[in-house]
Amino acid sequence: MLSKVEINILKSLLEDGITNQMKSKTIKNISEKTGLSYARVRDNIKHLLSLNCVELGFKEKSSYTYYLTKIGQEKIPHVEG
């Protein structure tokens, strides 16, 4: 099961259309978008990688980037109301 923080990270990637290697974002970009600390995003990205919810994108200078996978999209709860 995913945590609220992980779901927020996945939702942020989906909202921005970050669903392939070319559109991938750095941890810093994700941190700025979500308002979460860099360390918190980094730790949660590691877990999301292990679940195949995100994958590595192309490097941006010396930073790794990440994008939302189909598996990650399916894990985002769709809440109505």
Overview of this protein structure:
It is globular, with a radius of gyration of 12 Å. Helix content is 48%, strand content 11%. The chain has a three-stranded antiparallel beta sheet with strand order 1-3-2. The protein has 81 residues and is mostly helical. It has helices at residues 4-15, 27-34, 38-50, 70-75; strands spanning 25-26, 54-56, 65-68. It has one domain (4-74): Arc Repressor Mutant, subunit A (Orthogonal Bundle), CATH 1.10.10.10.
Q: Strand order, biggest sheet? A: 1-3-2
Q: What CATH architecture would you give?
A: Orthogonal Bundle
Average pLDDT across residues?
95
* Low-pLDDT segments, ≥5 res: none
What is the rounded distance between the termini? 22 Å
- The secondary-structure element order is HEHHEEH
Name of the top-level CATH class: Mainly Alpha
User: Using only CA atoms, what is the Rg?
Assistant: 12 Å
Structural class: mainly alpha
By CATH, the topology is Arc Repressor Mutant, subunit A
Number of helices: 4
The gross shape turns out to be globular
Quantity of strands, as a count? 3
Report the sheet with the most strands, covering strand number, pairing sense and barrel closure.
Answer: 3 strands, antiparallel
Total domain units:
1
